[in-house]
Amino acid sequence: MKRTAIVIGILIAGTLAQPARAQLVTPELRPLVGAYMPTGAQRDLFKDATMFGIQGALEVVPTFHLVGTFAWVPAHNKYTGFDENVSIFSYDLGAEVGLTQPIGSGWEFKPFVGLGVGARTYAYKATGLSDRTCAAGYGALGSEFQFAKVALRLEARDNVFCYRSPIAGVSSTTRNDVGLAFGFAYHFR
Fold this sequence. Notes:
Layout: H1 2-16, E1 26-38, E2 49-61, E3 64-76, E4 85-98, E5 101-104, E6 107-124, E7 132-147, E8 150-163, E9 173-187
Antiparallel strand pairs: 1-2, 1-9, 2-3, 3-4, 4-6, 5-6, 6-7, 7-8, 8-9
């Protein structure tokens, strides 16, 4: 873990040490759709579902972005006696470090890794289940294929979060799920 933190720190420092461009920060808007896939104990409580979201990003330099994400998953829970829908809202802030590689005809290939922190809210529709919010973090891996101001994005996220049961008296636990997203990016430059 310590070695990973050192490597990420070196990548960020090297990225920020690049020469400044004429416009220091370029905003981006990134709508996305994807799949929510609970893993481990989380899979015992929730089914796979579609995810919808939007990201806003600031390109500090071509290989370093600050990112804010909001996502909504209209999920279906599997609590005994409460087979109802639940809305899962996640919101986080993070950073992406990557490479920019021209691939011909004006296209650029931009693989990246990312880390972030935020929170997650479970809003249950069933009476008897209480809405809960808890802290979350993620690691991401993906790529962007950019042409001029627009890009296609693919991103996989491994989410780790505390999970507070909607049933009174049940303690919090650490859980995990995976999100796969496809989206577009528009670069305002």
